[in-house]
Amino acid sequence: MEKNWIKIFTSPDYYRSEIVKQVLTEHHIDTVLLNKQASSYHDFGDVEVYIHQENFSNAIEIIILNQINL
Asked: Which residue has the higher pLDDT, 69 or 44?
């Protein structure tokens, strides 16, 4: 992954991370999902959402305004 990407959200539930990704993407913030779950058992590990560091404050504001539980 390139430099200046930071983790903004982590969840053991893939769908929650995907919702965060979609909301941020709708607001023109580039996002990347990093799935660290075990391939056989999706109960182990997390799915992380990364954004560019320069978008951090804007992304936090969008998450709060859309009432996404962190």
From this structure: 44
